Amino acid sequence: MAGKTPKQGWIYLINPYRVFLRCLLGHIHIYNLDKTDNFGCKTADCRQIINYRKEFRREQPYIIWTSEKFKNGLNYIDTFTLIPLIFDIRERDKGLPMIYPINPTNRNGLEKQFFALTHQIFTADANCFKDVKGDWLNRIGQLDKSDKQAIEKRLKYFSDIQENPRGDWLIKNTSLEILREVFENLSVDNQYSALVDFIDDIEF
């Protein structure tokens, strides 16, 4: 039996094998990554090869936060804004303001305590929450109201820091240790982008 269209606060395991991929010539198709080797673009007469090993996502639970439509030419791609949940987190990171602990309940369906990484919120195409037939996956559960409100506060807090990084606030509240912990909790892609931007800003 197919699941229902995901809504805000619902928790899902991502399908890391079903994704929209774009070849180097710009052709976009849905692929089911069940192969052991690289594969060719689905567009007729296109000879581009796609390296699937770079596309796998970690199979972990995610919180659906918002849904949007992304325009791709004349078509629209459904997308979700997601908050990753992890359980293997270092003890010293548990007190960071952007990390929120979620205890298991009958409502959320989690089997153990997970931590919402609100600073790693990102957007993914909706197909990663569908099976190979295109049907929605079954949800794990949904957030309790108190957890949803707490995560919303953290998102606003993190957004305010990003949009209004007042110099006096940064001077009074930032330390090398805090910067290191925030950096280590970023995704690999965001770490790389941050380093590139930092190096570009340095005057030699």
What does this structure look like?
- With 204 residues, this protein is of the alpha+beta class.
- Helix content is 24%, strand content 27%.
- It has helices at 145-163, 167-173, 176-184, 188-201, and strands at residues 10-13, 18-22, 28-32, 39-40, 49-50, 61-72, 75-86, 99-102, 114-117, 122-125, 141-142.
- The longest helix is centred in the last third of the chain and has 19 residues, at 145-163.
- The radius of gyration is 19 Å and the shape is globular.
- The mean pLDDT is 78.
Give descriptors for this structure.
single chain; alpha+beta; SH3 type barrels; 2 domains; two-stranded antiparallel ribbon; 11 strands; 27% strand
Looking at CATH, which topology of the largest domain would you report? SH3 type barrels
- Write down the Rg: 19 Å
Uncertain runs are none
How does the major sheet shape up?
7 strands, antiparallel
Estimate nothing, just give the exact number of structural domains.
Answer: 2
Output mean pLDDT: 78
Distance between the termini: 61 Å
Instruction: Bin the strand percentage.
Output: 25-35%
Helix content: 10-25%
Looking at the overall shape, the CATH architecture of the largest domain is Roll
Count of separate DSSP helical elements? 4
The CATH class label of the largest domain is Mainly Beta
SS class: alpha+beta
Shape: globular
Give helix and strand order, one letter per element, not per position.
EEEEEEEEEEEHHHH
Q: Give the beta-strand count.
A: 11
